[in-house]
Amino acid sequence: MTYPHINQARRIVIKIGSALLIDEQNACIRQSWLESLIQDIINLRQNGCEILIVSSGAIALARYALKLNRYKLRLNEKQAAAAIGQIKLAQTWNEVFAKYDIITAQILLTLDDTETRLHYSNARSAIDTLLKLNCIPIINENDTVATSEIRFGDNDRLAARVAEMIKADQLILFSDIDGLYTSDPKSNPEAKHLPIIPELTHEIYAMGGKAPTSYSSGGMATKLAAAKIATMAGCAMAIAYGKLQHPLKALQEGARCSWFLANNKPYPARKRWIAGSIGIKGILYIDNGAEKALKQGKSLLPAGIIKVEGYFQRGNLIKIANKNKTIIGNGITAYDSSEIMQIIGCQTDKINVQLGWEGPNEVIHHDDMVILPTTIAAANAK
Ligand code: GLU
After folding, report:
1. CATH 3.40.1160.10 residue ranges in the chain?
2. Cα 266 to middle of ligand 1, angstroms
3. 193 Cα: distance to centroid of ligand 1 (angstroms)
């Protein structure tokens, strides 16, 4: 099996967790580590590779400044901390790159910016322009305006959604662990490191387990969720140990990490966006006949729907689940949830009678739908 190598990449998204950037004990930036990372990035750029950084640390920086030492902050405290810390975070990146005459750009995204098509296209075009201008985008979640219902909450999935959005060929999640193990190596000395993961299976998800609190805020479970988004979009993803000096150079020189291989038949752009959806708005449950039809490339008709969950509007990204409650796909709904309630189970020719107006025959058209690969759908069943 061929391992991806950073030197082959044309566009890389690098995710830096708070624990790497910030020295918790001394409540300051790990300056010499950061300088070493910047040198690595400059070397990669000299080889023609474009770099984007997804950086955490806003909340952590303010937490120290404000002496909010409790482990768990309330949502409003997190929002306030992010507003304070983000200035310092952006300033830090700006200053280190300025030494090399490189211009950085701050981009703060919310879930809505990746899940609503128009916002997504706007964000993508802004990021593309910055790359064309040879700048380095420094991206974080806009934690100040994000509420608990509409948050990524972890930068792993945010980084994957960005990688998918801008068609990166590699995503590197720098962490305080050097990859995926068969179980938690901190509690099980027998745990085996996995250098390459060709496919996300039920077993792989089981290895992610629950996030140990000492790892980055996302833990392994969100890293696997990120791997799903990235690999389905044709982007290889690595989980690598980032705390050492020159972490990228170490990877170039063969440091141990876990590579998740990219799907070699990535979807076209619109379907990539649908496939990577975090899809929090709702779920349509469908019967066995509809599941079979969808897997054969058909559209979803009202007759096959057995249950509607959540409140959503026409044009929203939602999930599709089978009778066993396994998520089998994602799609853009052509109807509001309240309208689907009125036409659930009904034959296509009865839609206008039920609604009182003529709507489309399909609740989700085939062109607006992605049926997940069987292994990923099976892993969803956990
Ligand atoms: N966006 C958060 C911050 O900048 C961190 C989220 C994460 O570390 O995954 O503090």
Report:
1. 6-272
2. 29
3. 26
Q: Which residue, 123, 372, 381, 161, is CA-closest to 267?
A: 372
Query: Can you tell me the distance from the alpha carbon of 84 to that of 237, in angstroms, rounded to the nearest whole number?
Result: 31
Q: What stretch(es) of the chain map to CATH 2.30.130.10?
A: 280-379
How many A from CA of 18 to the centre of ligand 1? 7
Q: Determine the residue of 143, 150, 151 to mutate for testing ligand 1's pocket, defined as the one with the most ligand atoms within 8 A of the Cβ atom.
A: 143
1 CA distance to ligand 1 middle (Å): 34
Q: How many A from CA of 56 to the centre of ligand 1?
A: 4
Strand partners, 241: 175
Q: Classify domain 280-379 by CATH architecture.
A: Roll (2.30)
Reply yes or no on whether the pLDDT at 211 is more than 50: no
For ligand 1, say whether the CB of 141 is within 6 Å of any of its atoms: yes
- Supply the pLDDT for residue 278: 80
Mean pLDDT computed over 63-88: 86
213-244 pLDDT tens trace = 433 455 888 999 999 999 999 999 999 999 99
Burial 136-155, CB ≥16 within 10 A → b, else e: bbbbbbbbbebeeeebbbbb
Name the average pLDDT for the chain.
91
The pTM (predicted TM-score) of the whole model is: 0.89
- Is the shortest distance between the CB of 57 and ligand 1 below 6 Å? yes
Per residue in 272-286, pLDDT (tens digit) is 999 988 867 899 999
> How many percent of the chain have pLDDT more than 90?
71
Span 144-173, average pLDDT: 91
DSSP 66-97: HT---SSPPHHHHHHHHHHHHHHHHHHHHHHH
Give yes or no for residue 18 CB within 6 A of ligand 1.
yes
Residues 57-70, mean pLDDT to the nearest whole number: 84
- Residue 245's contacts (CB-CB under 8 Å, 6 or more residues apart) are 32, 33, 36
CATH of 6-272, picked from 3.40.1160.10, 3.30.230.70, 1.20.200.10, 3.40.605.10, is 3.40.1160.10
**Closest C-alpha residue for ligand 1 atom 6:** 154
